[in-house]
């Protein structure tokens, strides 16, 4: 889709749809002329130095789980304010529909399938083959080489000790969990506590969403003599379904886990829409405290903040109008809320429907920060920096996904999808049909052929599934 298409037609349609869904920024769903989004336009005249980078990742947050994306019952005033002060992307995507492959894509800027660990959907247990190799360049290592300090707070999920950890992949500071999920209070995962200060096991009985946010805020408030990268990786609103104050439920799940119940954390007998609401709203409040720390240090204007989710929503998520969810390559599995703010360079109250995936943000941040990708490990992502900062045409590139059982590729308005091993090839016009209900494959066989061939071309460059 061309930038002209975006500015003339698609972005206006996206804005209208957002308003119709109640996605009006900073007003709790009440429309006001001063808060309605405008189609994105770069401010090519503004200039700024290298920004701090605050990269916030939610876990299993659905596309419409924020009030600025149309949630009818979840209120997220801090993320709404972030969107109001920056750019909201209607067509933001995760690298994969599952936790750890997306993190591989975000941290390396490459397709998850370029590494053995990226084939795990997700990484479920310690294995010396399943992780980001310490020698592989990452967003953190490349920014560190360019003079940034680097820190991560929260979920890693890219490999276990003794082989892998954030400290071995470019982060100077780490406080968080290595696995895919922990109890929000006990931090139990399996039969053991999964919480680390660096690579040293530690314990904390606070509500995990608050704990990691407060640690990130304290880190940001410290005196810094160089630009910084902070990755804040929430486990919210991933199961177990525990909101602030749910101590009894935590004790029950923790006891089951310690007794060897491998599925206790899945919490298949718990949760509710109200619990999920409170989990998301607690995360929003925690993000508000972190953003306040940025503001209080006087660096808000010079800090680039990117918020996204690692994949689509799960059991209690609100996805309308998308179909599918976590684990699927339908839009509901990979399209995620995505917000970008950088006051020094980006105008507020804007919306963009340019398709952008996790790897593209890696390339974008590296370019903005003046860091060079490693020639030995070329990026698969495409930088949006010229589009965002200079008004250039948005990258015209295909978005590619695969899982063990499914495949998908997006090119402009078209999405090619084979939803399962025995499924037929389908084609959807996402501009008209984001719910993927009208299969147009038989009407446009040449488009299907081209997109399927391109998918296979990329797939041949990746590792096969074991």
From TrEMBL:
Gene3D superfamilies: 3.30.1120.10, Alkaline Phosphatase, subunit A (3.40.720.10). It comes from the Bacteria. Residues 51-371 form the Sulfatase N-terminal domain. GO terms for molecular function: arylsulfatase activity. InterPro entries: Alkaline_phosphatase_core_sf (IPR017850), Sulfatase (IPR050738), Sulfatase_N (IPR000917), TAT_signal (IPR006311). Belongs to the sulfatase family. This is Arylsulfatase A-like enzyme. It comes from Actinomadura namibiensis. The lineage of its organism: Bacteria, Bacillati, Actinomycetota, Actinomycetes, Streptosporangiales.
